[in-house]
């Protein structure tokens, strides 16, 4: 689900178009935009604290004669949430799971990994190392 939630709308639309005959589904919970609280941990492992709120969109769909699919995405893109929910439902169908994992999930995961690598490379040149000198009292 995280791969679908982090995919762009254009990427999901391209995967949707690649399905050929799109499956029919009905919307159980239309895409709704709201806020969720984001929490963090001091030092990554310490005490939790509320960092702030972020916009999120959720959606639930059901394939005809199939399982429901759910999606929560960051942001306000209703179409992205709906497509992610449909792909979630499709991935729950044992007959489609392997094919969709190969044709949808893996390419999206590779694209996301490449974006992360590019971002790390871009900011690496501005990395600053901080250190503390300890003074001894002699």
Largest sheet, described in full? 3 strands, antiparallel
| Helix-strand category | alpha+beta
Main β-sheet, spatial strand arrangement: 1-2-3
- Rg, please? 20 Å
Overall morphology? elongated
Note poorly predicted spans.
none
Our estimate of the beta-strand percent is 25-35%
- Give the end-to-end Cα distance, rounded to a whole number of Å: 59 Å
Number of contiguous helices:
4
Mean pLDDT: 92
Helices and strands, in order, run as HHEEEHH
Number of strands: 3
Q: Name the helicity range.
A: 40-55%
What does this 3D model show about the protein?
It is a single chain. With 138 residues, the chain is of the alpha+beta class. It has four helices and three strands. It has helices at residues 2-6, 9-17, 78-91, 97-124, and strands at residues 25-41, 48-63, 68-74. Strands 1-2-3 form a three-stranded antiparallel beta sheet. α2 crosses α3 (78-91). It is elongated, with a radius of gyration of 20 Å. The N and C termini lie far apart (59 Å). The model has no long low-confidence stretch (mean pLDDT 92).
């Amino acid at each position: 689900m995280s791969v679908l939630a982090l995919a762009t709308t254009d990427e999901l639309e391209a995967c949707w178009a690649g399905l050929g005959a799109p499956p029919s589904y009905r919307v159980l919970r239309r895409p709704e935009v709201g806020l969720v609280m984001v929490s963090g941990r001091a030092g990554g492992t310490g005490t939790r604290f509320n960092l702030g709120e972020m916009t999120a969109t959720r959606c639930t769909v059901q394939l005809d004669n199939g399982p429901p699919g759910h999606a929560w995405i960051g942001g306000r893109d209703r179409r992205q949430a709906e497509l992610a929910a449909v792909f979630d439902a499709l991935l729950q169908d044992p007959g489609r799971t392997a094919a969709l994992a190969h044709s949808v999930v893996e390419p999206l995961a590779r694209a996301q990994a490449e974006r992360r690598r590019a971002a790390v490379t871009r900011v690496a040149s501005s990395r600053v190392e901080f250190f503390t000198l300890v003074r001894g009292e002699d």
